[in-house]
Amino acid sequence: MPTRPPVARTPVARTLKVLDRALLRFRAAGETVALVPTMGALHDGHLTLVRQARRKADRVVVSIYVNPAQFAPTEDFSSYPRRLAADVAALAEAGVDLVWAPDTAVMYPDGFSTRIAPEGPALAGLEDAFRPHFFGGVATVVAKLFGQVRPDIAVFGQKDYQQLKVVTRLAADLDLRVKIIGVPTVREKDGLARSSRNAYLSAEERQRAPALYRVLADCAAKIKAGRPIRAVLESGRKVLAREGFVVDYLEARHAETLAPVRSLKDGPIRLLVAAKLGTTRLIDNLAV
Predict the structure, then answer these.
(1) The whole model's pTM is what?
(2) Catalytic center at which residues (predicted)?
(3) What pLDDT, on the 0 to 100 scale, is given for residue 1?
């Protein structure tokens, strides 16, 4: 796609009528549309998704919506960072054509009573084992976003790997006619995956946090060298515990189906981890 200069001001749609009017202009010009769904509090990882979207489509729409259906009552919905003005400014600099920023009255109006209950990779015993509400909320809001924006392409980060597989399956199973693109995780220089939740880490916790990626890389190297997967993962969990993490899971799974694997012969392998450091829950993954 041709490189376009950043727009001086990126329009923000807050209602379906305004969104439809903007999309109609794109479609009338025969332009393709890429969607980058986000919950805001944007960092360079999100902007990497935007850059990829700009390479793949004529127009880029970024949605910003903190989806309450993804949060359990004990999670951080009320404190999740919200900074729409700063996010829109960053997206304008990145050349985004439209920001879709609905409120909850638009996304879940009175009487809303339809929810999607995904299976397959959504029931892999990873995030779903600890956040059983999560992927139903993701699938429902993503299906709504796809219906609202009707993108040709949707871009997601690989950091939320199980989510990427759930969304890919959702689009295929429901014939949503959108191509899902996964973009490799953006990391800090010390390996920590960039995340909006990194802001919750204390200075001391931030120093220890890169151990999560170091353990993943070490486990991947040992498994690739032929070491027994079960023993490698058990050792990795112990290392994380010594570093102060409370481990929810450190697992080796088939990279496409997320089914458990026992050896390299079981197919392409992805390592996935979730662990708490203090009050902050971090997730990451790495290919073997």
Answers:
(1) 0.92
(2) 46 (proton donor)
(3) 52
